[in-house]
Amino acid sequence: MFERVLSFLKELPTAGARPHARADDPRVAAAALLYHVMSADGVRQDVEWERFKVILAETYSVEGQELEALAEAGEKADGEAIDLYAFTSVLKRHLDSDARKAFIGLMWEIVYADGELHELEDNTVWRVAELLDVERVDRVSARRKAAAEVPEAKGRANDE
Known about the structure:
This protein is mostly helical. It has 8 helices and no strands. The two termini are 25 Å apart.
């Protein structure tokens, strides 16, 4: 199923080599949310940044300058945003229920990239999941899966 969702995400419309050209580009919306959760605890670690770029590269089949442009567009969009709804509304229009659940899984991968769950990261994923209409059980399941892939993970992976 994950491969099907990944395939769907790759087929989302692109804005050419300059992904920040359209404010409603779902790739930029996704990059902004992933960047936001990465920065939620106030510390952007290299391991998180690298995981962020790997997720963007794998999800959207981009590399090189196009990957850098997408990462920068996500960072810029997040910095200019006043809320998360601007991004989640774009994703809701473009992603079906399974793809939205998979996206929450990607957010958890970013959260656990450094091996720790910070309460602000947890809260950010919770808010995004709510805005994307991802059920609590699916959010918690995705969190447990991401935490299980990082043996030294610290945080509340078994809570809730």
